[in-house]
């Protein structure tokens, strides 16, 4: 069992996004809460080359864009999105999501693509 107090969470922010990473010793899964307030990334797409992400939309709404099939998916509070590893995606909207990743997310496996 591992307990991670909110006070241990690490805040991060960028252009149109912010979040709280909850540091864990577990390499099989980790957790963050993200806030998106515009298109993310601003241009192109992002991809995680090693982990699967699950997003539970805690509040707000938005659109998920998938590069490989040019699809657009509208989502809202209470919805769940599962993004597999190596899927290129982008978000647009104003929402907050709880995000566990498996295996644990690291910045080395995250890439931006055109």
What's the CATH class, please?
Answer: Mainly Beta
Mean pLDDT: 96
Shape: globular
How many strands? 9
The helix/strand order is EEEEEEEEE
Name the CATH superfamily classification: Jelly Rolls
- Cα(first) to Cα(last) distance is 40 Å
Q: Helix segment count? A: 0
pLDDT below 50 for ≥5 consecutive residues: which ranges?
none
Structural class: mainly beta
Write the layout of secondary structure elements.
Elements: E1 10-14, E2 17-22, E3 30-36, E4 45-48, E5 52-66, E6 71-76, E7 80-83, E8 89-102, E9 110-113
Antiparallel strand pairs: 1-2, 2-3, 3-8, 4-9, 5-6, 5-7, 5-8
Structure commentary:
The protein has 114 residues and is mainly beta. The protein contains no helices and 9 strands. It has a single domain, classed as Jelly Rolls, CATH 2.60.120. Strands 1, 2, 3, 5, 6, 7 and 8 form a 7-stranded antiparallel β-sheet that branches.
């Amino acid at each position: 069992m591992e307990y991670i107090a909110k006070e241990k969470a690490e805040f991060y922010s960028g252009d149109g996004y912010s979040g709280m990473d909850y540091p864990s010793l577990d390499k099989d899964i980790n957790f963050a809460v993200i806030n998106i307030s515009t298109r993310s990334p601003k241009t192109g797409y992002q991809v995680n080359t090693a982990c699967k992400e699950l997003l539970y939309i805690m509040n707000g709404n938005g659109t998920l864009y998938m590069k490989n099939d040019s699809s657009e998916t509208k989502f809202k509070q209470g919805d769940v999105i599962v993004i597999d590893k190596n899927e290129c995606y982008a978000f647009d909207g104003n929402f907050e999501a709880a995000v566990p990743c498996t295996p644990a997310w690291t910045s080395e496996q995250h890439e931006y693509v055109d």
